[in-house]
Design brief:
Helix content: 10-25%
Shape: globular
Number of helices: 4
Order of helices and strands: HEEEEEHEHHEEEEEE
Radius of gyration: 16 Å
Strand order of the largest sheet: 3-2-6-9-10-5-4
Strand content: over 45%
Mean pLDDT: 93
Largest sheet: 7 strands, antiparallel
CATH architecture: Roll
CATH class: Mainly Beta
Distance between the termini: 37 Å
Number of domains: 1
Low-confidence stretches: none
Number of strands: 12
CATH superfamily: Electron Transport, Fmn-binding Protein, Chain A
């Protein structure tokens, strides 16, 4: 049996639906951030999150230097934010498209379904990405958050809210 090629692997793992977030930190006086779908809870005791960032990501260096990061969980109405934060556009251009605030020393996107603020715990090599773990400092969620934005099959999608 031959090993899968890169495209086959990407298509296969792309069938796993994931939530869409913007991972953020401050770079000097201004915010920096990138769209990330490789984000999950890691531990309850202590409360920890895990994010994966591409080795070439400008946001990785910002998170490393800041020592703290935010996770804004995007809703279906924030597809435009997900798309612009996934580009190599200048950070000022990205952040001009959203309302945001400084919360505990990290930029958080207003109107996101939920927000998590973390202190960097470890940065671990992982192929062409790095795994960043963070101890949770605070969580916030909307009372009526609405529907999340989902990434599946290479596309941003809505979650069907009808139970099946």
């Amino acid at each position: 049996m031959a090993a899968p090629d890169r495209n086959e692997f990407r298509q296969t793992v792309g069938l796993l639906p994931t939530g869409v977030t913007v991972v953020s930190a401050f770079q000097g006086p201004g915010p920096a951030g990138a769209t990330a779908s490789a984000v999950c809870s890691l531990s309850l005791e202590p409360m920890m999150m895990l994010i994966c960032l591409d080795l070439g990501s400008r946001s990785l260096e910002v998170v490393r230097e800041a020592g703290r990061f935010g996770i804004s969980v995007l809703g279906e109405s924030q597809r435009g934010a997900a798309e612009i934060f996934a580009t190599k556009a200048e950070q000022e251009e990205k952040w001009a498209t959203v309302s945001w605030r400084d919360h505990l020393g990290v930029p958080i996107i207003e109107g996101s379904l939920a927000r998590v603020v973390c202190e960097v715990a470890e940065i671990i090599p992982g192929g062409d990405h790095v795994i960043v773990t963070g101890e949770v400092l605070e969580v916030e969620a909307e009372d009526d958050p609405g529907e999340p934005l989902i990434y599946h099959g290479g596309l941003f999608r809505r979650l069907d809210s009808e139970p099946g």
